[in-house]
């Protein structure tokens, strides 16, 4: 995989808790979402022990490889190394970027969460491959979110990235995004022509969907309508 050619358009973040996943099987949900058009998958699991996480990551990797989309692991760099997936996503309170890079090597994807201009610039300068910006809107999926920054907050980060010469770094945003607001989020966040988002990251809009394939197809269309061409 060439990490510079990744499509961040419809970025699926998993959640295995009953409130979101229900009694469905996570691997089947991911398979359906990817079939429908999800372009990248992040395995996010705050509860399983290491052994179970490795098992699930391997099962998800079999699915994502079959469909040619990247699989990243949230927080747990050791799990990503063990299963050999395409990379990780780390937050501000997780392993430091430099340490993750040492463990993963130059070819893997490392994405970093940023909620402020300062965090975004720091991650860029460290060498992050993409940024996850947010939280856009309050969400039931992650109740401990520190900063709800709205589309205006996303736009000011994009403007700052562009002004600092980082217009090329891919960005997605997360938090409360669904098929009703995805296009508007992309349009409102855009600091075009200087910089706009590359995609939207969602948990419940796909994982809790009755038909994840259909939901992914709709999101893909929403993103196509909202994306501002480079
Ligand atoms: N980080 C910030 S908000 C969030 C994460 C992982 C959860 C987003 O979930 P949803 O269901 O897409 O609002
Ligand atoms: Mg984290």
UniProtKB/TrEMBL annotation:
A GO MF label: thiamine-phosphate diphosphorylase activity
An example Gene Ontology CC term for this record: cytoplasm
GO biological process: thiamine biosynthetic process; thiamine diphosphate biosynthetic process
Residue intervals of the Thiamine phosphate synthase/TenI domain: 10-206
Annotated keywords: ATP-binding, Kinase, Magnesium, Metal-binding, Nucleotide-binding, Thiamine biosynthesis, Transferase
UniProt superkingdom: Eukaryota
Function text: Condenses 4-methyl-5-(beta-hydroxyethyl)thiazole monophosphate (THZ-P) and 2-methyl-4-amino-5-hydroxymethyl pyrimidine pyrophosphate (HMP-PP) to form thiamine monophosphate (TMP).
Family named by the database record: In the N-terminal section; belongs to the thiamine-phosphate synthase family. In the C-terminal section; belongs to the Thz kinase family.
Protein name: Thiamine phosphate synthase/TenI domain-containing protein
Species annotation: Hypocrea atroviridis (strain ATCC 20476 / IMI 206040) (Trichoderma atroviride)
Organismal lineage: Eukaryota, Fungi, Dikarya, Ascomycota, Pezizomycotina
Full protein: residues contained: 1 to 230 of 507
């Amino acid at each position: 995989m060439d990490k510079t050619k990744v499509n961040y358009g419809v970025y699926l973040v998993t959640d295995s808790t009953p409130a979101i996943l229900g009694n469905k099987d996570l691997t089947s949900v991911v398979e359906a979402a990817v079939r429908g058009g999800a372009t990248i998958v992040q395995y996010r699991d705050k509860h399983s022990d290491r052994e179970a996480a490795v098992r699930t990551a391997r099962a998800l990797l079999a699915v994502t490889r079959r469909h040619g989309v990247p699989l990243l692991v949230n927080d747990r760099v050791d799990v990503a190394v063990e299963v050999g997936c395409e990379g990780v996503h780390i937050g501000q309170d997780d392993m430091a970027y430099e340490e993750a890079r040492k463990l993963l090597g130059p070819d893997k994807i490392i994405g970093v969460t940023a909620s402020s201009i300062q965090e975004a610039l720091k991650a860029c300068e460290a060498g992050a491959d993409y940024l996850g910006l947010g939280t856009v809107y309050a969400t039931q999926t992650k109740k401990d979110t520190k900063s709800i920054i709205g589309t205006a907050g996303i736009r000011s980060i994009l403007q700052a990235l562009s002004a600092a010469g980082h217009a090329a770094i891919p960005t997605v945003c997360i938090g409360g995004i669904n098929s009703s607001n995805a296009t508007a989020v992309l349009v409102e966040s855009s600091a075009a022509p200087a910089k706009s988002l590359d995609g939207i990251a969602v948990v419940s809009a796909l994982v809790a969907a009755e038909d994840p394939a259909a939901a992914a197809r709709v999101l893909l269309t929403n993103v196509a309508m909202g994306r501002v061409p480079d």
